[in-house]
Amino acid sequence: MRQFIDEYLDRHQTVLTQLAACADDIEHLAQRCVAALSRGNKLLICGNGGSAADAQHLAAELVGRFVADRPALAAVALTTDTSALTAIANDYGYDAVFSRQVAGLAQKGDVLLGISTSGQSASVLAACETARSMGCDVLGLTGRDGGALRTQCDAVVVAPADETAHIQECHIVVVHLLCALIEKGLGLA
């Protein structure tokens, strides 16, 4: 077991070191979020599985607080309303669970952040398409080669990993960086 632990942590450290090459992309995500929040718009976030947890984590840090005790920021994880999720999935199919919420909640100038480790999640891609049609900025967190999500986004961070676990580890680092950069960008930190 010790060898497995050491090898896993070595891969983790390698991927996080390589994430530094994405600094410009992370900055672009943060700048778009700061611009939207400065205008009085909101951040909508979606993803499936572990990416749903990341969406919820980001929304919680922004509405609550990350480091600074500051006013709440407008962020909504589209992964949390089980009644909406199950009704939409039942009536329209699972691929519509996020796009239908975007259609009802988004306004021009809002930001949608889609999170998909493969970049191929149909429900996330559909949300991106709807958000774009409504005049929202579309941002992404993905991995591997970026998948289709990479081409749907105004700004995207592609985690430099192929293993889902290591992609998700990069995503949570990016989520924390976004929180800190948003607070700084809004003059709240």
Question: How would you concisely characterize the structure shown here?
Answer:
Helix content is about 55%, strand content about 10%.
How would you portray this structure in words?
It is a single chain. By secondary structure, this protein is of the alpha/beta class. The mean pLDDT is 97. The longest helix has 22 residues, at 164-185. Helix 1 packs across helix 8 (164-185), helix 3 (50-63) packs parallel to helix 8 and helix 5 (99-105) packs parallel to helix 6. It has helices spanning 2-19, 23-38, 50-63, 82-92, 99-105, 122-133, 149-152, 164-185; strands spanning 43-47, 75-77, 111-115, 137-142, 155-158. Helix 7 links the parallel strand 4 and strand 5 (155-158). It has a single domain, classed as 3-Layer(aba) Sandwich (Rossmann fold), CATH 3.40.50. Strands 2-1-3-4-5 form a five-stranded parallel sheet, sandwiched between helices. It is built from eight helices and five strands.
